[in-house]
């Protein structure tokens, strides 16, 4: 299985997601998207594959979202993509569907100590 994660090492959710992928026995291809953002074509492709709109992928916290007025519902998808290309920090945290990963190989707890996978490798909650 080939797994690519657009990763932000400063984001706890991103670090936890990367750790869960590795806990499933997969070493993903890690792209630090703030240093090497996806091309516009790739970003459009990812949005299409996820079945979402660009608005859903926008990150508000710790970004220029409000300053740029990106909450305006009249903005086109193209305008939102332009903003994400100009400011990659606007691309929200990694999105991974855990059901697509192989079973976890061991118990797993997030950085904050919350258990996500128990000792029998069963998911205890949605991550």
From TrEMBL:
Its EC number is 1.20.4.1. InterPro entries: Arsenate_reductase, Arsenate_reductase-like, Thioredoxin-like_sf. One of its GO terms (molecular function) is arsenate reductase (glutaredoxin) activity. The keyword Oxidoreductase applies. One of its GO terms (biological process) is response to arsenic-containing substance. CDD domains: ArsC_ArsC. It holds the Pfam family ArsC. Gene3D superfamilies: Glutaredoxin. Keywords: Oxidoreductase. Belongs to the ArsC family. This is arsenate reductase (glutathione/glutaredoxin). It comes from Pleodorina starrii.
């Amino acid at each position: 299985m080939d797994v690519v994660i657009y990763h932000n090492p400063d984001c706890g959710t991103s670090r936890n997601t990367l750790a869960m992928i590795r806990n499933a026995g997969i070493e993903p291809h890690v792209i630090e998207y703030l240093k090497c953002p996806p091309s516009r074509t790739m970003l459009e492709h990812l949005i299409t594959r996820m079945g979402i709109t660009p608005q859903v992928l926008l990150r508000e916290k710790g970004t220029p979202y409000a300053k740029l007025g990106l909450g305006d519902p009249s903005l086109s998808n193209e305008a939102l993509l332009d903003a994400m290309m100009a400011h990659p920090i606007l691309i929200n945290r990694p999105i991974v569907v855990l059901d697509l990963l192989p079973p976890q190989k061991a118990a797993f707890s997030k950085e904050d100590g919350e258990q996500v996978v128990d000792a029998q490798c069963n998911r205890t909650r949605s991550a």
